[in-house]
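Why do we care about 3D structure at all? Because function follows from shape, and shape follows, mostly, from sequence. That is the central idea of this module. The next example makes it concrete: a single protein chain, its amino acid sequence, and then its structure expressed as tokens.
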Amino acid sequence: MPRRPSSVPAAPSRPVGNATRGTTNPNRLRRMDRWIAAEHGAELRRAADPVAVDLGYGAAPWTAVELLGRLRTVRPDARVVGVEIDPARVEAARPYGRPGLDFLHGGFEVPLPGARGRAPVLIRAANVLRQYDENEVTAVWRRLCARLAPGGLLVEGTCDEIGRRHVWVALGPEGPRTVTFAARLGSLHTPSDLAERLPKALIHRNVPGEPVHAFLRDFDRAWAAAAPWARSAPASGGARRWRRWPPTGRWPATRGGGARARSPCAGRRWPHGDSAPAPRRHDAAPTRRPPGPPARPRRPGRPRPGPWSPPAGPPAPAAGAPSPNRAGRCTSPGPGPRRRPAGSSRR
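And the structure:
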């Protein structure tokens, strides 16, 4: 009897992909991890097998260890598998393994320990596709999304060496969903400074006429329009809220799809229900702060206060009049203190 073919494709004999530089640092992907825990936390809690993959973690396993800790704040039994195409890096990372954290040799085929056909609910690929050609990105996206479990998420993006500027794309089995811009605001002059950290699918399209270029242009205009209000109307929630909730826009607004590029601030609701100001339609210098409410009218007959003057002290006593001492007694002014005769001593 012929054997029924399996619906799960067989794993390739060798890993799919190329070795990257492997540059990594502790806490480098903190902004992406916080966003994943906030935006994808509900799916992690519903998943029957909450396993996530750190694809291409690099020369050291720090990012995989940190991802496990942050996901377990949402799902205590979450598991992370670090996948690296360089066998030497896998052997160097295995001493850091623990229950719920494994390191495997592999590539874009995304191997997982355990039963065959196991699918991850999350794949994170940071600073991996930046080293590939642009025409290879779509095929890699399609292959990784096919490995996801139902309701799974692929997060792919690029950041700087210490994680202060980060841009990533979130993809589901149907394709790209959103693009997120995260940064330490003190490191930015304008939001378009993040253009150097765009993912591979967008960085070569940041030219006039492309939707991503128009998106960043409108982002700068919204930034300039909101800057004069920074002192008078600070954002609610403080700096912690903006670290955890970076601006996220829909994918068609930044790349293709026939949609007009929009500012991430214009006409959308921000997290926790805060509305952001709409961008200007022309490049102009920020206006001064608008005038406040009219002054409250004074009651009729109320005297207007004059300039301040120090309070008057007690009147000086007249010449020859008794003056009070510290004890409150009155003493008459005499000829002065009596001098002690020479050679006498006080007894």
